[in-house]
Amino acid sequence: MNFSSKDKKSFFDLFGLLEKYSLDQDNLKSCYVKLQQQYHPDRLTGHSSSLRMLAAQQSAYINEGFSVLNDPLSRAEYMLQLSGIDVENSKPNMALLEKAMQQREQLMEACDLEDLEELSQAQEEEIASLYIAISNAFDQKEISEAMNCTLALRYCTKINDEIQQKIRVIGRK
Predict the structure, then answer these.
(1) pTM summary value
(2) Do residues 153 and 127 touch, judged by C-beta distance below 8 A?
(3) Predicted pLDDT of residue 1
(4) pLDDT value at position 50?
């Protein structure tokens, strides 16, 4: 086993993947399992505590990488960070803010499960189209467009989570 606490690889390099937004989820999971089998600290019970600690750090890094790459929003934000974009401090454009406000108003006005299911379906379609747009933007090296689409995805995902929460609340009544 080769443990190194320095020179952390990108998550794409760690899993042996090309740095692309679209990736094979099954391949990612397979690579994750192989890496965890190789580096999990439980495999080192008879070794020194320093080697076990390095293995725990590597295992945690593998877990973090899998979590980031497995989630489409996290993956897009990570790719933007790799491109030097400060995702956390980026501001959405006015059109996106207006659209988010309209969607939030629709959510507040929705009174029954049918309305909420309709809103959820529309959000899921929007999210799916944003996945495609983000992938295309990264493939074409249009980082600004990837950023705009990622911000839109962030808003759509949050609103869809709120829709699902309201569906659960109404469904319990």
Answers:
(1) 0.87
(2) yes
(3) 46
(4) 81
Name the band, by pLDDT with cuts 50, 70 and 90, for residue 135: very high
Quick count: other Cβ atoms within 10 Å of Cβ 16? Answer: 12
Place 5 in a pLDDT band, splitting at 50, 70 and 90: very low
Least confident segment among 17-31, 38-52, 109-123: 38-52
Contacting residues for 142 by C-beta, under 8 A, at least 6 apart: 136
The residue written with tokens 């929705």 in the block is 110
Euclidean distance between CA atoms 20 and 68, whole angstroms: 13
Tell me the three-class secondary structure of the chain, residue by residue.
CCCCCCCCCCHHHHCCCCCCCCCCHHHHHHHHHHHHHHHCHHHHCCCCHHHHHHHHHHHHHHHHHHHHHHCHHHHHHHHHHHCCCCHHHCCCCHHHHHHHHHHHHHHHHCCCHHHHHHHHHHHHHHHHHHHHHHHHHHHCCCHHHHHHHHHHHHHHHHHHHHHHHHHHHHHHC
Domains of the chain: 11-70 (1.10.287.110), 89-172 (1.20.1280.20)
Rounded to whole angstroms, the Cα distance separating 12 from 40 reads 19
Q: What is the mean pLDDT of residues 138-142?
A: 97
